[in-house]
Every structure is written in C-alpha cells, then in structure tokens.
Amino acid sequence: PYQAVNQACQYSESKSVFTISSHVTIPERDENALLDAVANIGPVAVDIRADTMMSYQGGVYDDSTCDEQMNHGALAVGYGNENGADYWLVKNSWGTAWGENGYIKMSRNKNNQCAIASYASYPVV
C-alpha cells in the first residue's frame, strides 16, 4: 500500500507477472495508425490536452480550440460513432464520478484534436 514517505523500492522480480521487452510509438499525429493499434493490439497510452475537458459530463467531446499542448496521460481503449460523430473512447484517471464513468468520448478525425495522436505508444510484452 501507498505510504507518503521516501523509502527503498520493494520491487521483487519473482512476483512479476510479465516483462515489458520494448514499446511501439505510433507515428506522430497519425489517427489512422492509432485506430489500427487500438483495433488490433489493444489499449494505447496517449498524451492529451486535458485542461479544457475537466467539466465533461457525457457525449462526444468536440472542442475546436483544444490545441496540441499535451498535459495529461490517458488510455485510448476504443472508438466509435455517435449520431454521426466519430470518437475515441478514452479511459481517464480522474475516477468514475468524472465523465461517463471515468471515460470520455473524444472527437476522432478532427485534425488530431487535443493532441490525441501526437504521442501515443503501447508496450510489447
């Protein structure tokens, strides 16, 4: 459990379930490559611009003023279309009381809105 003190790392290799051997970085700003990875590999870590979405409650988040100054890490876990609007399904770390049970539907195919595909990667295990 977490303790708010400086201490030695208690990592034990014998308790490891798997080892990450490397990682794959998605080509910068390439939403098609991100979609391919989410569809065929699984969840992809993404860096996004998040300060404009703090009050998000639901629906497809579309903010044309959201720039590419990344300031938050999240996990792209899926994609879809809602009422004609393409979106990324992104799992956030702000708890289930935020957004749609901790998730946000971020606009997809909107010129890399909120930097969704600017720096994305997944582990190779």
From TrEMBL:
Protein name listed in UniProt: Cathepsin S
Gene3D superfamilies noted in UniProt: Cysteine proteinases (3.90.70.10)
InterPro entries from the UniProt entry: Papain-like_cys_pep_sf, Pept_asp_AS, Peptidase_C1A, Peptidase_C1A_C, Peptidase_C1A_papain-like
Family designation: Belongs to the peptidase C1 family.
Species lineage: Eukaryota, Metazoa, Ecdysozoa, Arthropoda, Hexapoda
Organism whose genome encodes this protein: Anoplophora glabripennis (Asian longhorn beetle)
Top-level division of the source organism's lineage: Eukaryota
Peptidase C1A papain C-terminal domain location: 1-124
CDD domains noted in UniProt: Peptidase_C1A
GO biological process: proteolysis
Entry-linked Pfam families: Peptidase_C1
GO molecular function: cysteine-type peptidase activity
